[in-house]
Amino acid sequence: MTYEVGEVVIVSKPGTKYAERFQDARAIVTKVVPEEAFPYELTFASGETLGFSPQEISLFSADNSDNDPVNHPSHYTWLPNGIEVIDITQHFNFNLGNALKYIMRAGRKGDATQDLQKAARYIEFELKRVEDE
Q1: Buried b vs exposed e over 88-97: b needs ≥16 C-beta within 10 Å?
Q2: To 10 degrees, the CA torsion angle through 69, 72, 74, 78?
Q3: Strand ranges of the sheet holding 8-11, from the earlier edge strand across to the other edge
Q4: For residue range 61-73, what is the model confidence (pLDDT) as tens digits?
Q5: Which of 4, 43, 57, 68 is deepest in the core (most CB within 10 A)?
Q6: What angle do CA 112, 97, 10 make, to 5 degrees?
């Protein structure tokens, strides 16, 4: 199997002791160098990058991901590229991250109106914080 830059993969069979810590982790293929032993450079949500062989990874799809209500709840894992909502929100401060979280999950977990009201509340908190600075 070959992979292209931008595809989301899962580390399914890590071949080295160092790579074992990425077992079952999702990542984006960020570089492909076919002549190398580990031709696929993967970038993980943490920002870490590491090379993998094609035997160590598999293409991510909704079919091969289990709905894990604690670590990977379905209302946060719906994005088509395999990125989870937390992969985006972790790069923002508390208020903005929460506003984005509620916007992105609106209608996917319960009442969309309530989620959007929560998002608006966090935006209000952030506006107040910025105005008070």
Answers
A1: bbeeeeebbb
A2: 180
A3: 49-52, 40-44, 26-32, 8-11, 57-59
A4: 655 455 566 666 6
A5: 57
A6: 90
Q: What is the 3-state secondary structure (H, E, C) of 10-68?
A: EECCCCCCHHHHHCCCEEEEEEECCCCCCCEEEEECCCCEEEECHHHEEECCHHHCCCE
pTM: 0.53
3-state secondary structure 120-133: HHHHHHHHHHHHHC
Confidence of residue 99 (pLDDT cuts 50, 70, 90): very high
* Burial state string for 63-79 with b = 16 or more CB within 10 A and e = fewer than 16: eeeeeeeeeebebbbee
Q: 121 burial class (0-12, 13-18, 19+ CB within 10 angstroms)? A: middle
- Over 90: is that where the pLDDT of 15 sits? no
